[in-house]
Protein 1
Amino acid sequence: MPTSTPWLRPDSATRYGSVSRLFHWTMAFCFALMFAAALAHFFAKDTPVYELLWPLHRPTGTLLMLLVVLRAAWALLHASQRPPHLSQAARLGHLALYALMLAVPCIGLLRQYGSARGFAPWGIPLMEARGEKIEWMTDLGRLLHGKLGWVLLACVLGHVAMALWHRRSGDTNVLPRMIGSGEAN
Ligand code: HEM
Ligand code: HEM
């Protein structure tokens, strides 16, 4: 008799569960938008692509800040039942992704707060306009936000390349841990 696949699968030693996958792919989609907007900001200001994407940068970045906190909490709570890291390098790579996913929007939001301008992402009033700027916050943002954002992009490209390389090299194929049934082929 065919067995039905449970709708909500937990994390296990061979695959990430439904919640982990939902976090991973929703955030991957949002990060793709963020980097497209950042690239348009850097290379193609005053083009229709920039006009379309840049207004999404701060609201989507704020949403990502919330999602990464929830995702990190989920990962910590289920650490013992998730697929093991392939190597120490993979562990450090994932740690670096988490550190940057937290630091980049956090510094963006600090800069926004320090600017003393009001901020209402997705229409939700998060920061009120004030009189006085906070210089150290805007300076920190100017110094680090964009640079660390590009470092994060480089790490994401490395992460995707490694996932594909493991599959091609005949090493453990990690893709089924995050996509599909969880059975390596
Ligand atoms: C989650 C992730 C985020 C990523 C990956 C990200 C990435 C980037 C990158 C790579 C740049 C540089 C663009 C350039 O050099 O032209 C940038 C610029 C910028 N980001 Fe973000 N960002 C994020 C979140 C945020 C948030 C939450 C805010 C504010 C609420 C924000 C506000 C800005 C602003 C205002 C700039 C333009 C800075 C300037 O004109 O010098 N970002 N971001
Ligand atoms: C096409 C894009 C992507 C592919 C194919 C992909 C693939 C994968 C795979 C196969 C794993 C499991 C690796 C293992 O267990 O060794 C994984 C885990 C992970 N990925 Fe991605 N990924 C992509 C995009 C991203 C992006 C954009 C980020 C973050 C900015 C990211 C962050 C992570 C993290 C932190 C993990 C560890 C598991 C977790 O806590 O969620 N990935 N990814």
Protein 2
Amino acid sequence: MKAAAFEYQKVQSVAQALSLLQTYGDDARLIAGGQSLLPSLNMRLSSPTLLVDLNGVQELKGITKQDQVIRIGAMTTHTEIENSELIKEFLPMLSQAVPHIAHRAIRNLGTWGGSIVYGDPAAEWPACAIALNATMVIASSHGQRRVAAQDFFQDIYTVDLSAEEILVATEFPLSVVTSWNYFDELSRRHGDYAIAGIAMHLKYQAGKVESNEIVFFSVGSTPLRALKTSQLLNGQNTNALADPSLNLQLVNQVKEEISTLSDLTNSAMMKTHLVGVLLGRALKQIPTLS
Ligand SMILES: Cc1cc2nc3c(=O)[nH]c(=O)nc-3n(C[C@H](O)[C@H](O)[C@H](O)COP(=O)(O)OP(=O)(O)OC[C@H]3O[C@@H](n4cnc5c(N)ncnc54)[C@H](O)[C@@H]3O)c2cc1C
């Protein structure tokens, strides 16, 4: 199928894009890499009157270190994140996750912002943003607002963003040196969407877990935080984590806590099993820290 006819405008600034969104409201769609939007237009799941192309907007591109945050512009591509030395140094979880996103051709065009706003529960970036305590920076003609990543993803393909707003960037607090990051996913073939995945961030002090965030994706309608399991992990001695009985206790807790949903090919029961497998493997990787 082909998309229904639409008008097209390539803008050069956020202000220009916001003005068009204000005029057209829900009849306009922003286009970034087009990797998710174009298939949905071609399948006529959506028929906007106007496409507003963000590819000319320089202020939305790039990765910068500012005071205490790393800022990723919404129009930064997956490949730019993959190649960034700043990301490798300060946000290694994203470097671990990015090779799992589709294939090179899609990573060259697809953007951070497109993936975040699309809100696919199987996508890698939303889970990482929550695990790393990121903040979404959102612009409208009324000004800017900020939303914590953990509040931004509301339901399947549903995020806290209105038709008249643009995601400008995402900001990450700088990772402290005494932290550990982990990312893993299980998929049928490399580059496929995950059947289940985990993003985990842990801070420690004097050999003990001080705080941690465990997020699962592709198992529910949004990325899911394992809050009770995190609580159980806090205060544990990192060298005690090699103990199989503690590992089993945490795995049982997470399987009870994370409420999974089936997808077209995998049952909820299978996803629950994989949540346990992913956490069990992650715990075995936590180094003995001091
Ligand atoms: C074959 C295939 C395999 C894929 N596999 C994976 C995978 O394994 N993991 C994964 O995470 N993704 C995967 N993707 C999706 C890919 O990562 C897309 O790049 C991403 O989901 C959307 O990014 P985009 O820049 O292409 O956005 P677009 O398709 O251009 O836009 C997506 C949506 O976001 C809106 N939007 C875009 N930018 C903004 C903004 N700044 N502010 C407000 N709204 C905005 C658009 O209006 C649209 O509704 C795959 C895609 C394909 C085609």
Protein 3
Amino acid sequence: MTRRAVILGGTGQLGAASARTLLEHGWQVDLAHRGERGVPAELAEARSVSLDRSDADAVERLCRGADLVLDCLAFAPADAAVHGRLVGEVGSVVVISTASVYRGENGTWLDIADSDETFPVLPVPIDESHPTVDAVDDPGYSPQKAALERALLAVEGLPVTILRPGAIHGPHSPALREWFFVKRALDGRERVPLAHLGQSRFGTSASVNVAELVRLAGEHPGRRVLNAVDDPAPTALEIGQAVFAHLGHAGEFVLLEGPPVDGVGGHPWAVSRPVVLSMAAARRELGYEPVGTHRATIGAAIDWMLEAVGDADWRERFPALSNRYGAASWFDYDAEDQALAR
Ligand SMILES: NC(=O)c1ccc[n+]([C@@H]2O[C@H](COP(=O)([O-])OP(=O)(O)OC[C@H]3O[C@@H](n4cnc5c(N)ncnc54)[C@H](OP(=O)(O)O)[C@@H]3O)[C@@H](O)[C@H]2O)c1
């Protein structure tokens, strides 16, 4: 009999990639979303369901009897409640958390890091047994995700796989960080300064790799928490090189010692210390093999974004890039040129 998957957030970057992987493996897929974005053409085989994640009754009705529920839209402990209502009614539940739940050995975490001192000190690589943020009353993103994880694991009998992705990239991304390099290639920038000698590593996650983990967790229900990142983690320099290679741009990277100075050399992966996650548990528990490295998978994301931007203003087409990641300040070429001239 055909297995049925429900994806809450089905038209987003993770939902779409997971749907495609599941369809390719013979699953029937229901894409639940509010309808603000269209259903990607390549998912015509899937069923589109209009629903708001906050309507627990509608979520319960749709998910009952599913073999797999992928929840891309759980952010706080209260979001675990609907899964509690579905114990015994679904085969496997996969909930997307984040790599930023890890608590540094200095007691800090990514959301509150604003200097080298407050940047979390984390082992390299981080495995899933490392402590997570335990500031339940803090309304921030990572404390709430960590509390959500605990709430899910507290639901007795829930076959839940919690995935912790890093910086996600893929087609349908609302905020592709690689735009930092893509736009420089489009603008013909010949020299790109990179702080920390371009060696910063902040784990990336190709949506197709996360999708493969979703499929495996769907086929092997269990109660587990797994990192969900590209393996190996690329350096910022390698990310830039991959983007330029895909676009055939021959720009040079100028590697600067130390942190960015007045923003020059800064980039979306510039971190004081590495945030590198181990994928050993996924390999061990699910027999996971990555679909591809960052370099092998980034091209599809770039091509999709270039087509999506078209002739439009990228800031209007992708407001989350500016609003959430501060991309509006990424392209101060005058400051960059002056610093490089010195
Ligand atoms: N972006 C990253 O780098 C990153 C890193 C680590 C973890 N994460 C986690 O990844 C998850 C986000 O997944 P994503 O990147 O695939 O998201 P996304 O690309 O922004 O897509 C969100 C999807 O959810 C739908 N949606 C949004 N609000 C909804 C609601 N209230 N009810 C029903 N559908 C709704 C959207 O469609 P409509 O708007 O049409 O409803 C869309 O299908 C989050 O849990 C986030 O914490 C993200």
Protein 4
Amino acid sequence: MSDITALAIDLGGSHAACAVVRESEILAQRSLPANGSEPLANLLPDLAKALRELLASSPIDHCSALVLGFCGIASARENRVLATNGKFKDATGLDLPGWCQREFGLPFLIENDARLALLGEHAFGAARGVQDAVMITLGSGIGGSALLDGRLLQSKHGLAGTIGGHIPVVLGGRRCSCGNFGCAEAEASTSFLSEIYRQQAGRSTGELSNRKAIGFAEVFQAADAGDKAAIATLEHCLQVWSALTVALIHAYDPEVVVFGGSVLKRAADILPRLQEYVGAHAWTPGRTVSLRAAALGPDAALLGAIPLIGSRL
Ligand SMILES: [Zn+2]
């Protein structure tokens, strides 16, 4: 892949990371504010301008393609956005390959952002050298992707491997944003953390009970200080993540499971517990699946542009 260079965009609901990438190296990078409640069409001129400036400051004179990692359901086969979860709703109707051709004269490739991150981790990071891998991102929601026999799992409607966070892990559990009940995301993600904390606090009041929105960093901090509701909240979340990990191991038979997302700042507190549970309860005769923290952090999806191009052009 040493000849592949890319313009890469990792588009999320609040910011867009733009970069010029060559093999495992990000040559130039810039983050732009982005508002997912507005049309993507309004953001395209800013993205094109940023990429042109980054390209001008990079020591290369040619790019292989432009790759967009999109925060919704995208089809790499059809090279378009299939559906959004409310962010950049107009994206399903945009001719993005046409925009890319007009702006840069380059081929355009699209992939879901979590899937692109796993491609990056597989080529250059924590899943390097394995054929079968699953990635789970723990943050405001629970995202995921699956790679089998060295290739991202593909399906007609684009969902295969990506909605592991919506596997139900609690019967009779909390209603999730997807409409289902007891999804891992509804039981152990930042979006639902205030509710989970208050449920664990019960009639007693925890240190964080009156806060409208809390993050895992605060819950870990409160637990470190001895707050019982925070300790119970983390215990609940660890059990949910453990059950989810076993479910995904049983679904995809990976060699490794890579964990990314903001919650993994406390990987040293989380992964040994999950590894212990997986060792005891996942049915993988004769071996134990290795659980690893993501190695590339927020750069994973940008670096995933290189293997995506390598597999498509
Ligand atoms: Zn759900």
